[in-house]
Amino acid sequence: MTSNAQPQPSAAVPGQRPPAPWQRMANGGGLLDPAGRLRSTVFEEMTALARRTGSVNLGQGFPDFAPPREMVDAAAAALGAGHHQYAPIVGIPALREAIATHQRACYGQELDPDGQIAVCAGATEGVTAALLSLLRPGDEVVLFEPRYDLYGAVVEFAGATAVPVPLLPPAFVPDPDDVRAAFSPRTRAVVLNDPHNPTGTVASRELKELLVELAAEHDAVIVTDEVYEHLRYDGPHEPLATLPDAAERTLTVSSAGKTFSATGWRVGWVSGPRDLVQGVVAVKTYLSHSAAAPLQHAVAEALAFPREFFDGMLADYRERRDVLVAGLGEAGLTPPTPQGTFFAVADVSDHYALAGVDDAAGLAQHWAQTAGVVGIPVSAFASPANQGLYADWLRLAFCKRTEVLRAAMAGLAAAV
Ligand SMILES: Cc1ncc(COP(=O)(O)O)c(C=O)c1O
C-alpha cells in the first residue's frame, strides 16, 4: 500500500529542471510517486477499499450526521436574504465579531475583530496563508509527527524545510530534548496541532510553554491549528496563544468544519497579532479572496449558540468515543483513550499473527476483507525517517453515528 506521507525533500537533479512548485507541494504532502506523478492519498485508497469491500469507513474524518438544524436554517435564511456577492476579504463583520466574542467567552482572550481576525476558506486556507506569509526559501519549520499532511505540503511549496519531531508512542509525547534540538537560527515557524490529529492527544502545558520559550529565543512564529478545540474530553481547551508571552508571536487557526459537523462549508479563521494577521490577509486575498458569504452569516450565528450546544455535542462525541474504545477493547486491543478530536489510535501488533501480516497497513487491508472495518495506518502521517515508529498503529475515526460504530465494532469482534 502506498503511504500518504512521503519521500525526501524534492531535490534538483543535475542537468534537469528542479521540481515544479506543484511537485514540491505534492511531495511535501506525500502525494508524489517515485516517477514524479501525482498519486492518490491514503485516504482515497482506503475509502475505495471500504467501498469495494462494503466496509464501514472509519478512515476519513468527516461526520456522517447532519450539522445543527439552526445553523442550516441560518444558511438558508442568508441565501434568501440575498447574500450572494463577494464577502469582504477579511470576512463579514458579524462573523469576525462572533469569533472575537467566542474567544473571549471560551478562553478570556481579547481580540480586535478589525485587524486581529481573518476569515478563510476553511482552516486549510488559514494554515496555508499563515505559512506562506512567513516562509522564505531556506527557512526551517518545526513539525511534530505524525502530522496532518497539509503542513508539509505548504512548507515544501514555500521552499522551506520541515524539521520533524516525533511524538513518541504510546503516549505520543515528544522528548523535550528533541524539541530543543529541532530549533535553529533558521527556524521561522513551529506548527502545533492541539488537540492532535491523528493521535487524539492534547498538548501539555509544559510542551506549550517550551514552544513559547523556544519561539521567543529564535524569533519564530507559532502556528497553532486548533480545529478540534471543542472536542476536548478531559478538561477545557487552552489555546497556546493565551499562555504568557505567547500572543505576540502566535497565529491561531480554527474552523467551523469540525465543531459544527460541516466540513464541506469551508469557513475557517485565523487570529493573532495585527502584523501577522496582515500577512495572512495579503496571501489569502490571492487564494480564495473570501469564504462563502451566506455560510459566514450562518457560522456567525452558530458561534453564538448557548453553552448547552457545545456541551451536548461533546457529550455525543464522548459516547461515540467510548463505543469505539470499548469495541476495540473487546477485540483485544488497548487503545489510549483519546483526550481530544474524533480519532483514536491503537497498537494492532497483537493481531498480526492471526492475520498473517506484519504491520498496521497490512492489517488495515485484512480487516477490510474480514471485519468490514477500515482504518488508516498512522505511518501514513509521518515522513520516511519516522514511519517505523508508527508501523504498528492504526487510526480510527469516531465521527460516525453510534449505531454505525457499534456495527463496526461487532464486525471486528466477530472477525478476531
Ligand atoms: C488537524 C487538521 N487541521 C486542519 C484541517 C482542515 O480543516 P478545514 O476543513 O477547516 O480546512 C483538518 C481536517 O481534517 C485537520 O484534521
From TrEMBL:
GO terms for cellular component: cytoplasm. It holds the Pfam family Aminotran_1_2. Residues 56-407 form the Aminotransferase class I/classII large domain. Its EC number is 2.6.1.-. Residues 1-31 are annotated as: Disordered. CDD domains: AAT_like (cd00609). Signal peptide: none annotated. The keyword Transferase applies. It is an enzyme of class 2 (transferase). One of its GO terms (molecular function) is kynurenine-oxoglutarate transaminase activity. Its cofactor is pyridoxal 5'-phosphate. It comes from the Bacteria. The keyword Transferase applies. Keywords: Aminotransferase, Pyridoxal phosphate, Transferase. PANTHER family: FI04487P. Belongs to the class-I pyridoxal-phosphate-dependent aminotransferase family. This is Aminotransferase. It comes from Kocuria tytonicola.
